[in-house]
Amino acid sequence: GDSSNLITNEMLERILEKNRIHIGEGKVADYIPELSKANANAVAFSVVKQNGEVVNVGDVSQKFTIQSISKVIALMVAVEELGEKEVFSKAGYYGTDKPFNHYANLETKGKPLNPLMNAGAILTTALLGGENDEAFQKILGMVRYITKNEAIGYSHSVYMSERETGHRNRGIFHLLKNNGLIEGEENRLDNYFKQCSIEITAEDLAKIGYFFANQCTRFDGDTKYKNSEMSKLVQSQMLIAGMYEFSGEYARTVGLPSKSGVGGGIVVSVPNKIGIGTFSPGLDAQGNSVVGYHMILDLVNELNLSLF
Ligand code: GLN
Asked: What is the CATH number of the domain that holds 90?
């Protein structure tokens, strides 16, 4: 049945308030200096129910940068354009025990482990090619489509901050080039920095979660991109690699395809059911939102949403 009918404002409110206690446990990302300006106390929790209805609590209008969650959109756009075979001839389907920005096996002429680590995401965006910021515009366009929110843009200051300090990502970009996996100049990497700087809300994330949970059908029922193979691919990657080296423990405790970003967002897809979006900028050692994780865990346990 549709257990999401049980989800009310009061339920989400209660879970959110209970988990404020964890706010101090996380640390706001500061390796991208501009991110350190986030309000550490902001919390938002959003669900798109099975019928497409939105339930939002907390700091609902708080915007934050999408960061690594953009990687699932870039993966979708790259596979739409180039096909799964081509994309996965250059990246693996592997999970990882390494941090998100690890070179993994690139130094031995290998491929990125998967498209959800920085190396794989820098690859998928570079594979989109194009002039100037064309690849970024495609990714932004898909985020706007999925959320039906044309007002979504990107933070120029976060973009500049990533670009100025992204030496490790620059290294990854050049190793990908060295290994013959991508072509082009560093503007291809700028597209990656820009996609990470896209500003969204928890509600936008819940809509993204809903989309991949429901064969790429939008929350309002639009089926322009309906594709069950695409949603299987994206959700399987989220399940094995969406929370980086915490993915295995997360699968054990939450048991759902999810993706985090260092901006403090987490998106969750409950297959064939609902989408969940959370925001709280305090991160654990792996770069996942602490309060977000706890809110998701409570909702999933209360409604028995785990796949397992
Ligand atoms: N823009 C960030 C980076 O490349 C994204 C990382 C993340 O959200 N985990 O370092």
From this structure: 3.40.710.10
